[in-house]
Specification:
Layout (H helix, E strand, L loop, with lengths): L1 E9 L3 E8 L7 E9 L7 H15 L6 E9 L5 E7 L2 H14 L2 E8 L4 H10 L3 E4 L9 H12 L6 E3 L6 H10 L6 E3 L13 H14 L17 E3 H16 L2 E6 L4 E6 L4 H4 L9 E6 L8 H8 L1 H8 L3 H9 L8 H22 L2 E7 L2 E7 L8 E5 H6 L3 H6 L17 E4 L5 H7 L4 H11 L7
Parallel strand pairs: 1-4, 4-10, 5-6, 5-7, 7-8, 8-9, 11-16, 16-17
Antiparallel strand pairs: 1-2, 2-3, 11-12, 12-13, 14-15
Helix pairs in contact: 2-6, 4-5, 7-15, 7-16, 10-11, 15-16
């Protein structure tokens, strides 16, 4: 059986293959899925890819699967591990961090100001896949970024370095890396914070994804990836962001929620309302991603249990505390019994509520010479029309619609959360990340497939 296109999602533990036909026609079709454990530890992820294709072959009830093109997303080997170094945290460092997160990076370190010896040692300990240097508005402060670039260029690190700071420094930064014989490691892009209160994160995001694709072969177990993948490779979280941005162009402002075993990610693609923009303290990117490393419903489940409390779980789930403790001790990645489903749904509810509150901005009251004034700070979600659920918990749990609706029910008036009118949509086929990478080369087909998975009709 010949298939138009396969997309592989290479995770840290599982590799999933999604199959699509009718690409670049008016009627693209999702035809099946196969999965297998990821084989990073075996030193060759293509082993897991082949096994996932074998599983797909069985599910399609055919003797052999052939394909015209294979694309991939990956979070294997820790995904895109980065350190970010700017001038002022609330300005250039924050802007650089936003760009990195939106590209699908895992931020392991953020510094503001000139690097210290302890910072350099920490960079060595992190062993980043990419280092991002920013600092200074255009034609503003120059010294900090130059100082940091000189120190980083002298480090014994064979990793890509991206400079996204003051435009006046570009030639100087080039010279620094040329003198160290590392000009091939350097990438220069537009300033992420060119003017006061202006963010410019998209150029950096695009280059970060290009760097990821070019250098993914250096991650453990990933050196054979290009033997099979004939198209784009981008980080899985970055793929979800790409799909979210594509969908927003078609249906309007939205947030995408992905509750996973280790983290909960929220991607918002929305502009500030007129009312909020007038009182906003600092700018936020239109497309923003947050990652909550303590809000996973499997690997980091105990963090959520501690937030809720055993006693409260016992009351809410109508189970004795001993049963709750057994559920915690014997927790499984995929629930099977009614008790396990009830337990995971409560964990998911907490992850959704807490992550949404962390992602959303809020109001602050400041006292100045003219008296008390109210300002807004952080991401404004009040214009969001759609809440999208993707990932295992938000697409497979029976109460997924009600769980996502909790985002609109916990506003005490101090947070910039979506309003109750926001519509809940579910990625029923669980293909949103795959469609994000597909959109890089076949955008029209990716949008049609995503709307079909979300059960969106043309009148929406």
């Amino acid at each position: 059986m010949r298939i138009d296109l396969l997309v592989a999602e290479i995770g840290s533990t599982t590799t999933v293959i999604n199959a699509f036909n009718g690409i670049d026609t008016p009627f693209p079709e999702f035809i099946g899925q196969g999965q297998s454990p990821t084989t990073v530890l075996e030193g060759d992820v293509t082993i897991g890819l082949h096994k996932a294709i074998e599983a797909l072959t069985l599910s399609l009830k055919t003797d052999q699967v052939e394909y015209n093109k294979l694309l991939a997303t990956s979070s294997a080997a820790g995904g895109l591990k980065m350190t970010v170094h700017g001038l002022v945290y609330d300005m250039t460092a924050k802007a650089a961090k936003e760009a990195a997160l939106g590209a699908g990076a895992n931020i392991h370190m953020v510094t503001a100001g000139k690097l210290r010896r302890t910072d350099l040692q920490r960079i060595k300990d992190v062993k980043p896949n990419i280092i991002l240097i920013a600092g200074g508005v255009d034609y503003g402060e120059r010294d900090t970024a130059i100082y940091n670039a000189e120190l980083i260029a002298k480090m014994d690190l064979d990793v890509p370095i991206l400079y996204a700071g003051n435009i006046e420094n570009q030639e100087e930064i080039k010279l620094i890396f040329e003198e160290m014989g590392k000009q091939n490691q350097l990438y220069i892009v537009e300033n992420v914070y060119p003017k006061i209160d202006q963010l410019n994160v998209e150029p950096t995001r695009r280059v970060l994804q290009d760097i990821f694709e070019e250098h993914i072969v250096h991650a453990p177990g990933m050196e054979h990836i290009r033997e099979m993948v004939s198209g784009s490779i981008i980080p899985t979280p970055g793929a979800v962001m790409e799909a979210s941005k594509m969908l927003r162009e078609d249906i309007g402002d939205l947030i995408t929620v992905d509750v996973g075993g280790a983290t909960t990610d929220i991607h918002s693609v929305t502009e500030d309302s007129d009312e909020i923009s007038r009182i906003l303290i600092a700018p936020e990117p239109m497309a923003k991603r947050t990652v909550e490393g303590d809000l996973g419903v499997y690997i980091n489940m105990t963090h959520i249990v501690e937030m809720i409390g055993i006693e409260n779980l016992s009351k809410e789930l109508n189970m004795d505390e001993e049963t709750i403790k057994i559920l915690v001790a014997e927790h499984v990645p995929i629930p099977k019994t009614p008790e396990q489903f009830a337990f995971v749904e409560r964990l998911t509810k907490e992850a959704i509520i807490v992550s949404a509150n962390r992602h959303a901005g809020g109001f602050r009251t400041l006292f100045a010479g003219g008296g008390k004034k109210t300002y807004a700070e952080g991401k404004d979600l009040t214009s969001v029309k759609f809440i999208i659920g993707t990932g295992g918990a938000c697409t497979r749990l029976p109460s997924r619609m009600a769980l996502l609706a909790e985002i609109t029910k916990n506003d005490l008036g101090d947070k910039l959360l979506p309003k109750k009118e926001a519509q809940i949509l579910i990625d029923h086929d669980y293909i949103m990340a795959s469609l994000g990478v597909l959109s890089k080369e076949h955008k029209a087909s990716a949008l049609l497939l995503l709307k079909k998975s979300l059960r969106i009709k043309d009148e929406v």
